[in-house]
Amino acid sequence: MKIPLLLMFTISVMMFPELSNCDINEDRNRCGDPLIAIATCLPFVTGEAKVPTMDCCTGFKHVLQQNPECICVLIKDRDDPSLGLHINVILALSLPQRCKINTRLTVADCPSILHLPPNSPEAQIFQQFGSIDNQHSGAAPSPAPSGEIEA
Fold first, then answer.
1. Rg (alpha carbons) of the chain, rounded to whole number
2. Which of 90, 92, 133, 147 has its CA 20 to 30 A from that of 74?
């Protein structure tokens, strides 16, 4: 089960503050609890499930509304070896659409949300993902009922 891996991510986010600038470290420290709310999204964003569950969508909507910086931190740290998992950013970026969540926020907003310098390598990554996200908008399947994962 992948949920313990999210707990490992949460712990590693709090234990390695030296990995980035001060604002990002603060965001990482604040994101431990909010990221637990989207643990049910792991099967989808790691490519194990074809659609997100309703529980995933509910948790994702809450985190997106209350702690959008946590979504940005998770995308930023998507390939961190200490996580023990690989988050498929294309799938993660499709969550608002697949969960039918109306939001004006996009991945391109992450540099300002995280207070990153616009020309920094980290900001550039989000800008690249923003262009990919724009190319992949369209109709998507509805979320699976709570607790069910379509494979």
1. 14
2. 147
Tell which residue, 40, 106, 118, has the closest CA to residue 75: 106
Nearest to 103 by CA among 62, 135, 55, 54: 62
pTM higher than 0.85, yes or no?
A: no
Please, what's the b/e burial string for 48-62 (b: 16 or more CB within 10 A of its CB; e: otherwise)?
Answer: ebebbbbbbbbbbbe
Copy the structure tokens of residue 11.
């712990």
What backbone torsions phi and psi does residue 119 show, to the nearest 5 degrees?
Answer: -100, 10
In tens, the pLDDT along 9-65 reads: 444 444 443 334 445 566 667 888 888 889 999 999 999 999 999 999 999 999 999
Question: 41, 60 in Cβ contact below 8 A?
Answer: yes
- Record the tokens describing residue 15, joined without a space: 């234990």
Give DSSP secondary structure letters for 3-23. HHHHHHHHHHHHH-GGGS-HH
